């Protein structure tokens, strides 16, 4: 992983984990308080049940004819009774208590009114030690849940982080690949031009310089085509389109002459069936790019001593080659920018992308048929 990718992943994870931790902690805090209150309320309900039990005992004592009255006691609960003036009558507490006593961290207190006043009792105070066992269990379960949840969120964060940086990673890889391809593509024709200029200067004889001049011509045309493709990709939306009725038959013959040196260099057998007087409404530069990119690919990916056939009618334009062919699984991706079915021949992967863009702009139809190690057939239908 590159440093920039790692830095972006760390930043994403930091923001994701901190925000998740805050929201998760808030949810846990609300849940914990709600669950704790439920536990406390259930224990308060138990005090109310005990209070009803004590009221019934007080009623029994009040109605008893015995001279000895035994106040009910409990190991779990403490209680005290008060008269109308809130003066203590009797208590099982070990400390002094009043009707104003409040709950603390360890004990719950509930004050109840009693009517009728059994044994002169107007108020009953009942208390109970808070049973912290279910609260401790709740805390342990929440801690375990937070640990497991934290690990799950961390794994999810890493997964989402990788998805987050995937487009950037692909863009970086695409950029690096483009730079490598550009270096190779530009270096080859430039080196060819410089090398052959040196040879011409060394030989200094026109008859010996013919081959070198041909190589310079091919290299120069290659540079020109690269420049045209890159210009189209970068500035297509800003280029003024002068759509006119173009004689495609005439233009195609001109472009074939342009590629003659490439055909000769690879000793490709060329055949054409061009119907005269075929006119198409299109920008001239777009028409040239359309033809050039299809012919260029047919030559580039052809085999040495292979064949190439060009057919033009009022309905369609077809270029067939006897080249290396394309795998069936790669056919659907060929028109994507920077996508190449075969990297052995170099290039940027822009040719068919440009062709596809032009075809869509003018509502033509592009069809590519290919068989691996047999050849490729590119069809442009002028009308649906």
Largest sheet: 5 strands, mixed
Counting H and I runs of at least 4 residues, what is the number of helices? 7
Which residues sit in consecutive blocks of at least 5 with pLDDT less than 50?
Answer: none
Strand content: 15-25%
Summarize the structure.
With 384 residues, this protein is an alpha+beta fold. It contains seven helices and eleven strands. It has helices at 3-63, 133-203, 210-235, 248-258, 260-265, 284-300, 351-361; strands at 77-82, 88-91, 107-113, 123-129, 243-247, 269-274, 279-283, 307-312, 316-321, 365-371, 375-381.
Topology:
Layout: H1 3-63, E1 77-82, E2 88-91, E3 107-113, E4 123-129, H2 133-203, H3 210-235, E5 243-247, H4 248-258, H5 260-265, E6 269-274, E7 279-283, H6 284-300, E8 307-312, E9 316-321, H7 351-361, E10 365-371, E11 375-381
Parallel strand pairs: 6-8
Antiparallel strand pairs: 1-2, 1-4, 3-4, 5-7, 8-9, 9-11, 10-11
